[in-house]
Write a structure and sequence with these properties.
2 domains; elongated; about 15% strand; 3 helices; 4 strands
């Protein structure tokens, strides 16, 4: 009845698979909307909500953006909107890269 579906994440633009099993789970729970974020960006959004970091609105809080670290491929949270023409690093890789430049 369900088939795997590829969706583009609204935050990072990466494609992710909305599996048949996940679709069935959503249907069983009565959820009608498909996910709009990949699992990594969903986790970041959930963490931001828990920390009270909003997506703007003049609260004085910094808006954090999910990115993929150019060094290790892990999840990175950065306070700027990543661009494709510059690498983005997670905290530990950023420290290593910065140390090699000095």
């Amino acid at each position: 009845m369900y088939a795997d579906k590829t969706i583009s994440c609204r935050d990072c633009g990466m494609d992710f698979v909305f599996s048949a099993g996940e679709q069935q789970f959503y249907a069983e729970k009565g959820l009608v909307n498909e996910p709009q974020r990949c699992p990594s960006c969903r986790a970041v959004a959930k963490q931001n909500r828990a920390l009270g970091i909003s997506s703007g609105g003049g609260t004085g809080q910094r808006e954090m953006h999910a990115a993929v670290c150019a060094e290790c491929g892990g999840q990175a949270l950065v306070p700027f909107l990543p661009r494709n023409d510059r690498p983005v690093y997670c905290s530990s890789c950023f420290d290593k890269v910065r140390a090699t430049r000095t």
